[in-house]
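Q: Please design a sequence for this.
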């Protein structure tokens, strides 16, 4: 049954992508918004998680009505991103590059002049898949760290979309070897480092304890390469704006653990600053604050 379910899932994904590529950009975007609204209405569990996360993070700044509206736009943004990714082969490199504006590519250029590569670190914000390809569209070789989907055919389908705009991929199962090899070759590594980590650094994120992965900063310290924080916001279906943070170079204080922690905290301060400005573009549906939830329920939580 699982095999049949995977086959159906793959056929739906492939068929949906083919449909999206046949539509005009504006029509594809309207289709995506409708899809997002439908999922928002039907997927109560994730809707409730997003509402709770947003309320606890920004409830003192936003009214309940604004939070509920933002939650709906979160689902729309995720659907729009999925449809846009499936359209990568039809859009092509030239048109994709014309859809993106912003600055900060000079940080990548400077890092690669040092010959040790760099780690571009982003979040599940706006269309993060398109952002990863922006680095390639600007002329730099990039390897995106990707999770392995349970459905092998869907996994290969998504990787094909990513590669159609020039990015390569590193699967999370071989992250350590692949990331260090890419940096040694003076390539760019792209990581979305905003989700819950079972082991990592406990830090304050939107006023609550979250566990952040230390891996990106640890790789940067080991390779003597910078972490370059970026987020890319969506303005409309054919316009995306890159926002660059300050480069975070390894401090070389003599205390590796402290350096890794300081770099990880700096990345999350950047995330928080931008997400506060554009809360409907981040993926609040993820249970980012599992440590805080466990503490609030009075249960033990091990990092």
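A: Design:
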């Amino acid at each position: 049954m699982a095999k049949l379910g995977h086959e159906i899932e793959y056929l739906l994904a492939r068929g949906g992508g083919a449909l999206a590529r046949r539509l005009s950009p504006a029509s594809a975007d309207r289709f995506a918004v409708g899809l997002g609204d439908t999922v928002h209405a039907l997927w109560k569990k994730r809707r409730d998680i997003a509402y709770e996360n947003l309320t606890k993070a920004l409830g003192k700044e936003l009214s309940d009505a604004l939070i509920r509206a933002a939650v709906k736009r979160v689902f729309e943004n995720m659907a729009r991103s999925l449809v846009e990714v499936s359209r990568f082969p039809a859009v092509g490199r030239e048109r994709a590059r014309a859809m993106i504006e912003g600055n900060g590519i000079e940080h990548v250029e400077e890092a690669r002049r040092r010959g040790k590569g760099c780690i571009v670190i982003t979040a599940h914000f706006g269309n993060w898949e398109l952002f990863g390809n922006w680095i390639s569209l600007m002329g730099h070789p990039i390897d995106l760290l990707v999770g392995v989907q349970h459905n092998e055919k869907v996994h290969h389908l998504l990787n094909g979309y990513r590669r159609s705009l020039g990015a390569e991929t590193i699967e999370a199962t071989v992250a350590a070897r692949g990331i260090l090899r890419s940096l040694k070759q003076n390539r760019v590594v792209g990581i979305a480092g905003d989700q819950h980590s079972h082991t990592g650094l406990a830090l304050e994120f939107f006023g609550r304890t979250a566990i952040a992965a230390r891996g990106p900063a640890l790789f940067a310290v080991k390779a003597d390469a910078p972490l370059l924080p970026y987020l890319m916001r969506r303005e409309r279906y054919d316009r995306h704006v890159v926002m660059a943070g300050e480069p975070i170079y390894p401090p070389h204080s003599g205390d590796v653990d402290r350096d890794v922690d300081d770099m990880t905290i700096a990345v999350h301060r950047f995330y928080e600053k931008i997400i506060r400005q554009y809360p409907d573009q981040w993926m609040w549906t993820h249970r980012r604050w599992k440590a805080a939830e466990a503490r609030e329920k009075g249960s033990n939580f091990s990092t």
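Q: Thanks. Anything notable?
A: Residues 18 and 248 are 40 Å apart (CA to CA). Residues 64-86 form the longest helix (23 residues).
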